[in-house]
């Protein structure tokens, strides 16, 4: 990160100094500007990787400076601005201590990547946002250079997903072959592209071969190529994917769907880095790194005689990408990201989700994982009739009774003045029971879903005498369920706040 340059713009010396120390501690090359005019001058002299800018500043405010930096027509009406911005493609994160919807909308219209409230920013979340936006724009630049296709933003701060990212960071610089496993739609190709982008081969080609999309008869030809006359219709030589990707990385998707004949040739390529095109007597050397993915359990395929064990062991590292059900903490940020992405594509303005829509999303089992979430957000953007996604805007599969039962109404009781609403205590007890049932009694996941620590959840279980979720008959918890000291880091709060899950 040492070569990553950030321009920090803030007229408040205290804030500027505090953020400056933080950014430098994270290893970024930092340039600071005390107002909008200085930011504009710097933007005409140097291209930055990221700009973090305050909105409310004396003289030239952040929105006016943003308009100039992004070369918007609005900047032409602002006097005193000279020069040509070098940062019209640079991501800009706007900061403010005085949040207004008008400012946020204007900032997004003028090209800001994100809009954050100073008082609400948690340092760890800010760091993740910065890392995400830098990764996103790095991949976008690679796409524009013709090196890769469309990318998904690497989003995820749940423990399950962060373990994947941490492992990627450690092994990406190596030449080791890597096998990615996990359910369909979890984002295995996204992780593969992340490995490539962090490797020494990031400036070389990333080639893909979907072994299930190509017929079993032609996958061998696609990967290894052929010589003229090798079969009927082979009117000329064909260079296969492996030879075309010389010096780069090859990603074999759904490797478990291949034939034994193909696997024999693949073993030679993995082991010796040698290939033999169809119809050729010559063996050719190839210099590629292999990444692969599968959504089937290869161990069972090996036992059934459908997959070669020696190929399986040629992949030094096996990374399991968790399902969306296992990383529910990431769902709000992922949903917001894809919602805004499809809103931009369709020329719509969105401001998030209603509480009922949030609840429906959090209670859905997501069998299709990230891919299903993408489809759901595109569906919602098309169907929504206001700037917020309601429960009615979501696909029926997400809000159906089987996935998200709704309480039945009692028409006669609705107008009875002697009946009072459910007490806060009863509401909290219901929320705890629902979370425990939804996570099949796994207290760590239930606590995460509720936004409280495991220790607090244990106290709620005792308070409401939920004996079915206690380990021992006397109502105490055994040693395996003792809540450790690090849970205190989650915060001292004892209230449940599910509405905040979907806030930016």
Overall 3D geometry?
Answer: globular
Helix content: 25-40%
- Low-confidence region ranges: 145-153, 401-424, 472-501
Global Rg = 27 Å
CATH superfamily of the largest domain: P-loop containing nucleotide triphosphate hydrolases
Tally of helical runs? 19
Termini separation: 25 Å
Proportion of residues in extended strands? 5-15%
CATH topology of the largest domain: Rossmann fold
> What's the multimeric state?
single chain
Description:
With 504 residues, the chain is an alpha/beta fold. Helix content is 38%, strand content 11%. The protein has 4 domains: 5-142, Rossmann fold; 159-320, P-loop containing nucleotide triphosphate hydrolases (Rossmann fold, 3-Layer(aba) Sandwich); 325-399, Orthogonal Bundle (Helicase, Ruva Protein, domain 3), CATH 1.10.8; 423-502, no CATH class. The chain is globular.
Observed structural traits:
Rossmann fold; 19 helices; 5-stranded parallel beta sheet; 14 strands; Helicase, Ruva Protein, domain 3; alpha/beta; 504 residues
Write the layout of secondary structure elements.
Blueprint: E1 5-9, H1 13-25, E2 29-33, H2 36-43, E3 50-54, H3 62-69, E4 92-96, H4 101-109, E5 114-117, H5 123-144, H6 159-171, E6 178-181, H7 188-197, E7 206-210, H8 219-224, E8 225-226, E9 238-239, H9 241-244, E10 249-253, H10 260-272, E11 274-275, E12 284-285, E13 289-294, H11 298-303, H12 309-312, E14 317-320, H13 331-345, H14 355-363, H15 369-383, H16 396-399, H17 424-438, H18 443-450, H19 454-463
Parallel strand pairs: 1-2, 1-3, 3-4, 4-5, 6-13, 6-14, 7-10, 10-13
Antiparallel strand pairs: 8-9, 11-12
Helix pairs in contact: 2-3, 13-15, 17-18, 18-19
């Amino acid at each position: 990160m040492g070569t990553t340059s950030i321009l920090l713009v803030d007229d408040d010396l205290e804030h500027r100094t505090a953020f400056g120390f933080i950014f430098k501690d994270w290893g970024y090359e930092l340039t600071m500007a005390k107002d909008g005019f200085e930011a504009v001058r710097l933007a005409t002299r140097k291209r930055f990787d990221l700009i973090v800018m305050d909105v409310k500043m004396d003289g030239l405010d952040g929105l006016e400076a943003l308009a100039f930096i992004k070369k918007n027509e609005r900047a032409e009406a602002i006097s005193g601005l000279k020069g040509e911005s070098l940062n019209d493609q640079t991501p800009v994160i706007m900061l403010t201590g005085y949040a207004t919807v008008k400012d946020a909308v204007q900032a997004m219209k003028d090209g800001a990547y994100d809009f954050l409230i100073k008082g609400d920013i948690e340092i760890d979340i800010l760091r993740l946002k910065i890392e995400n936006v830098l990764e996103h724009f790095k991949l976008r630049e690679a796409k524009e250079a013709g090196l890769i296709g469309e990318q998904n933003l690497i989003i995820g701060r749940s423990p399950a997903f962060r373990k994947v990212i941490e492992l990627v960071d450690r092994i990406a610089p190596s030449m080791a072959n890597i096998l990615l496993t996990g359910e369909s739609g979890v984002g295995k190709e996204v992780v593969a592209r992340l490995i490539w982008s962090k490797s020494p081969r990031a400036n070389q080609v990333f080639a893909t071969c979907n072994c299930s999309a190509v017929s079993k008869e032609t996958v061998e030809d696609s990967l290894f190529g052929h010589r003229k006359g090798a079969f009927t219709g082979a009117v000329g030589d064909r260079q296969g994917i492996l030879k075309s990707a010389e010096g780069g990385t090859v990603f074999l998707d759904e490797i478990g769907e291949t034939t034994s004949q193909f696997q024999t040739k693949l073993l030679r390529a993995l082991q010796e880095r040698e290939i033999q095109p169809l119809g050729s007597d010559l063996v050719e050397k190839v210099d590629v790194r292999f990444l692969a993915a599968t959504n089937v359990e290869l161990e069972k395929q090996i036992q059934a005689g459908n997959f070669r064990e020696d190929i399986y062991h040629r992949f030094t590292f096996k990374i399991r990408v968790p399902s969306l059900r296992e990383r529910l903490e990431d769902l709000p940020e992922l949903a917001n990201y894809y919602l805004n992405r499809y809103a931009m594509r369709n020329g719509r303005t969105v401001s998030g989700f209603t509480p009922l829509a949030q609840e429906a999303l959090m209670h859905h089992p997501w069998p299709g994982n990230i891919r299903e979430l993408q489809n759901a957000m595109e569906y919602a953007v098309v169907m929504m009739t206001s700037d917020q996604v309601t429960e009615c805007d979501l696909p029926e599969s997400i809000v159906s009774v089987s996935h998200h039962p709704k309480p039945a109404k009692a028409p006669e009781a609705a107008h009875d003045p002697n009946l009072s609403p459910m007490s806060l205590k009863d509401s909290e007890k219901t929320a705890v029971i629902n979370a425990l049932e939804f996570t099949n009694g796994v207290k760590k996941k239930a606590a995460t879903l509720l936004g409280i620590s495991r220790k607090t959840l244990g106290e709620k279980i005792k308070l409401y005498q939920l004996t079915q979720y206690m380990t021992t008959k006397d109502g105490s918890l055994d040693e395996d369920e003792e809540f450790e000291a690090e849970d205190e880091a989650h915060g001292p709060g004892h209230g449940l706040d599910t509405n905040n899950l979907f806030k930016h």
